[in-house]
Amino acid sequence: MTKSELIDRLTFENGALNKREAELIVNTIFASIGDTLAGGGRVEIRGFGSFTVRERDAREARNPKSGEVVRIPAKRTPFFKTGKELRERVNVL
User: Fold this and answer.
1) What is the span of the domain harbouring residue 59?
2) How far apart are CA 2 and CA 45, in angstroms?
């Protein structure tokens, strides 16, 4: 599902919202999650999952084409862990 499909579905399932309002809601939620993660925080949505930031150490790697050693700097990456309810929903056979 894409962001625009999510907006369309929100508009369809809730007759009180028009497309512009649904887009504002979706953008606000995504911006809030992004801002919290950028600040080093954690976002938990019960039954869905949690978003955290993981620290990656600096390391050395090899360029597969040339074999040259390349230095990769330390970085922070977002990480998502599914909640129990979502895992169970996905694993229904």
Assistant:
1) 46-93
2) 19
Going residue by residue through the chain, which has 93 residues, state the pLDDT in tens, using 9 for 90 and above.
999 999 999 999 988 999 999 999 999 999 999 999 999 999 999 999 999 999 999 999 999 999 999 999 999 999 999 999 999 999 986
Q: Is the pTM of this model over 0.90?
A: no
DSSP secondary structure letters along the chain: --HHHHHHHHHHH-TT--HHHHHHHHHHHHHHHHHHHHTT--EEETTTEEEEEEEE--EEEE-TTT--EEEE--EEEEEEEE-HHHHHHHT--
- Both 53 and 88 in one domain: the answer is yes
Residue listed under structure tokens 């954690």: 42
